[in-house]
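> tool_call: predict_assembly(chains=two)
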Amino acid sequence: MLKPVASNNPFADPLRFDRRVPECALVIFGANGDLTKRKLLPALYRLAYERRLPDSFAIVGNSRTEMTDEVFREKMHESVKQFLEDSPFDEDLWNNFARNIFYIAGDLNDPKLYSDLKAKLDELNRPNVLYYLSTQPSYYGPVVEAIGAAGMGRSTEKGWHRVVIEKPFGHDLESARALNARVHSVFPEEAVYRIDHYLGKETVQNIIAFRFGNGIFEPLWNRRYVNHVQITAAESIGVEGRGAYYQEAGALRDMIQNHLLQVMATVAMEPPAAFEPDAMRDERAKLLRSVKIMKPEEVHLYSVAGQYRGFREEKGVDSQSQTNTFAAATFFVDNWRWAGVPFYIRSGKKMPKRTTDIAIQFNSAPHTLFTSEDGRPPRPNLLILRIQPEEGISLRFLSKYPGAGMRLRPVSMDFNYGSSFGERSPSAYETLLMDVMIGDATLYTRQDMVEASWKAVTPILDDWTTRSFDFPNYDPGTWGPAESDAMLARNGHKWRNG
Amino acid sequence: MVATLEPEKILKDLRNLWSELGRGAEVTGGVLRACGMTLVVAAESGDDTEELRRTLGVLMHDHPARAIVLRLQEKPGLDANVFSQCWMPFGKHQQICAEGIEITAGSMELAHVAQLLLPLIVSDLPAVLWCRGPRVFSGDVFAPLLPLVQKMIVDSGTAADPQAAIAVIRDLHRQGRLVADLAWTKLTGLRELMASLFDERSAVGIKSVKILYGGDVASPSSIYFSAWMERALPGAQVTLNRGDEGLRGLRSIVLSGEGCEVTITRPDKTTLEVHCGGRIRRSTTMLLAEEVLMGEELSILGADPVFDKVLA
């Protein structure tokens, strides 16, 4: 394990360079894929730009395609230039950074790949090694086992060996447990970092700051004051060439089981005793374990599947596909804080706009003195945590319309990230890559969290896999099927389609 | 007769500026008003206006602020105008703008500037004073401004006499002021490199630290580095001496003791060569621009315990 820098290093300055990456090599399996090009390399370059990586930081990419180190560097050079967000590109810095980028071609099923890799790592002689599985999920188990068989899995006296596993971690509860057993046969839990990039987003992390850093919100954060919570992750695009993958996953598995349930856990968890990895993850896990498991007869009431018109015509998609491109569910949390408060979660493709937000609707004032302009009772207060785009927080409340009479109108008090902190926040991958290299697992999911979130969606998955849906059931550019609105209407609620 | 300015008039000009910006942006995605603090910049009459504007423009991207540029001049008079710094974040449709006020003040009017600034500082947000030139080291000219701000940033590298400049900074620190020095900020990269060498290695056995500097006198950074080593290694003998002619500033650092020998040399302006544990490592250090150094200091608005110890 990496020793905390500040503990016994007399030169430590936690204020200015606490989170320093030790000498290490990062091995990326699936280095020719989109994730590496679009997210990982730009994030690593940006960390180098910020002087967060040591000069000796090395990257070893792997995929099946034969190419030299030089060709791989050139490909990554182009990718970083193309996908670097909000940042200048510095050619000199790149040249320095790229000196330590290497490439090994090889099939993931071929033991020779791992002996070649071992030889390369021995040659590089970095004390710490991070393996990043950016491959198809079916390779996670075999790659980890092959790393173990080649004797490259266990941390040594010299340094740590860790593994980052991309989602999906299993395709149901049983497969998640099976995969976990395979991973644990090589890496101990403290060396396993299951990445959920939503948790790395600044705005998701800000939920924690907002809730536990301020004194005024937490007293209201419970069933006495909160009427219901809506979590929406909408995309305006379709499957964009990922039809074959998406057909196997669907919105429920792709978004709700992992990202959105983790976001819900962050919104609803109890305050941790300390801002430390296990304290945070314990609370998230506790919340996820408190999610009420639907009974089979409740699934129809509390979940809605949808598919947009045109999905079946996408490349790689079955013409009779039953895959959900939209999923919505109502979850309840069985604890004292949240008993009876519905958490509505939805995610879909081909929606009117790209947006991810959390809307917390408070109860109406207990006695209504005023009506709104349309004669109806005034709308209740709404707190909106905007994850993307236009990251920020808004509080809707009523205000007197200027002029004679007491006319009330909802107004919004807005906090926008850019207005206080300028334009740039680190990307989720910058945050998460930095975290894994310094050994901070706070924003990574633990096995018990993964299992709890699979348990929460299992009744829905069980029901949906045995049903034949009358798909497609929503038009592109709409907020999903009508049943989704009906699900909320049964409780007297309405989606906030802002 | 001392000239005066009405702060209300300046605030009104700012409101008008935002109205103008809003009108100009009607056809685009609008304007986002950004402000996370007040940054008072005390600029000297000889400072390059364009260069300062550019520096502030870059700084605003990560530290949006109401910038109040206080330009000191010899001739009497007091004048003010407002300006904005706008930029379009990559891939966005909405401009972000920060506002600024430029006040030109003669030496006679300087005493009145504090009164003028008080209502111009944004309420409930941090306020920082950046003294860009050496004037701060030659008298207490900025004393009236200090109660208005939480932090003061100076650059002893601009002073003719580094020892005297550091004495002024130490004095401010003793008075309880939060004060930062860009000459110290410049050391972050080197200090981080030094720290990285001892992440996995004990520094307990180090008995001697020999620091050499180039140039006629020790630069403020060399003095700070030496003081930092003394605080970090109280059991070691730390010496700071003049080295070869040539490159100014820190030239080499040699740490030695039981089973430990670390040498860091600076063969040229941008290279650091580290000899440690039988290995030789070369690092490239970037010459950090003023806005980068300022950006680092504006990220720290509270106490800086390590620098505090160096100043103590």
